[in-house]
Write a structure and sequence with these properties.
eight-stranded antiparallel β-barrel, 9 helices, 26% strand
Length: 293
């Protein structure tokens, strides 16, 4: 049997995709997929990741918690690629994003705390960038909407060649239609880049409860190939070559110290989402003055 490109096959083979983040009062209910996703990437300096960055980021979380701010975000750290942290903030609309920014600006106490936290965090960073993405329902299949028990996120990015949008849509439809038939529990959500990056950029999010799911994920490739058939496999390869200019696949670990999540997430899994507050470093003890010998 002809094998598909291993990277593209990893996109859908047996995966459980999370293109949705809870926005209602219960993490166990059926929830609407947020339309707008704002992503901040922080690239840390060598030696400035780990606990030191966790502590700096926890200052933002504490400030938002004290303010009881209604907008939440999920923080995660890289397990592959360049050392970095991602922060995903979700909104129902661009209007909601604007109102959130305006509300923070009007809250003098919260703004001051965030500014102080930002100055401290900035000392640890090599660079920072931001992007805004919009949910694409046509390119998604039964997006998974409950993330409170997840621990890892695969993020797959695709850059589509200019003028090849039709081939890209056909390629995604082949995956969607045949996985829907062959793998009933397949789920994914796709977001399209709107601001802050190259046009034709698409992100696919894959939530994992554990890394063993990655091993299991490759088990469904034969089912998919059988559903697609030889002609479909050939067409898939042709479309990939025609429309995909570049692609990447990275994996991140959820980080509770960097996350300001809804109360429902914390209640669903308090041991993970409510870790003990990170202690402030102890002040060095004053040296005792001894007579000069």
């Amino acid at each position: 049997m002809r094998k598909l490109d291993r990277y593209l096959f990893a996109l859908l083979a047996g995966a459980t995709f999370a293109g949705a983040i809870p926005t209602t009062s219960s993490a166990q209910e059926t929830m609407a997929t947020p339309r707008v996703l704002q992503i901040t990437r922080e690239f840390t300096k060598p030696g400035k990741a780990g606990a030191v960055h966790d502590k700096a980021e926890s200052a933002f979380v504490q400030a938002m918690t004290r303010a009881k701010w209604p907008t939440h975000y999920l923080g995660m750290t890289s397990l592959s690629g360049k050392q970095r942290a991602l922060f995903l903030t979700w909104y129902d609309s661009f209007d909601a994003w604007e109102k959130d920014n305006a509300g923070i600006a009007k809250n003098a106490t919260l703004s001051a705390e965030l500014d102080r936290a930002g100055m401290n965090d900035g000392e640890l960073l090599d660079s920072l960038d931001q992007g805004v993405f919009m949910f694409n329902e046509d390119m998604s299949l039964r997006p998974k909407k409950e993330l409170s028990h997840m621990r890892f996120m695969e993020i797959l990015s695709f850059h589509v060649r200019p003028g090849h949008g039709n081939e890209w849509r056909e390629l995604v439809k082949l995956y969607k239609d045949n996985f829907e038939k062959a793998v009933p529990d397949a789920h994914w959500g796709t977001y399209e880049g709107i601001f802050g990056g190259e046009g034709g950029t698409y992100l696919v999010f894959i939530a994992r409860e554990n890394l063993a799911e990655i091993d299991k994920g490759f088990a469904d490739d034969e089912k998919f190939a059988a559903a697609l058939g030889p002609d479909g496999m050939k067409r898939l390869s042709e479309l990939e070559a025609a429309c995909v200019e570049s692609s990447q696949q990275q994996i991140f670990a959820f980080n509770p110290h960097m996350s300001y999540v809804p109360d429902d997430w914390a209640k669903a899994d308090p041991d993970f989402w409510k870790p003990k507050a990170m202690a402030r470093p102890a002040k060095p003890a004053a040296e005792s003055k001894k007579p000069t010998p």
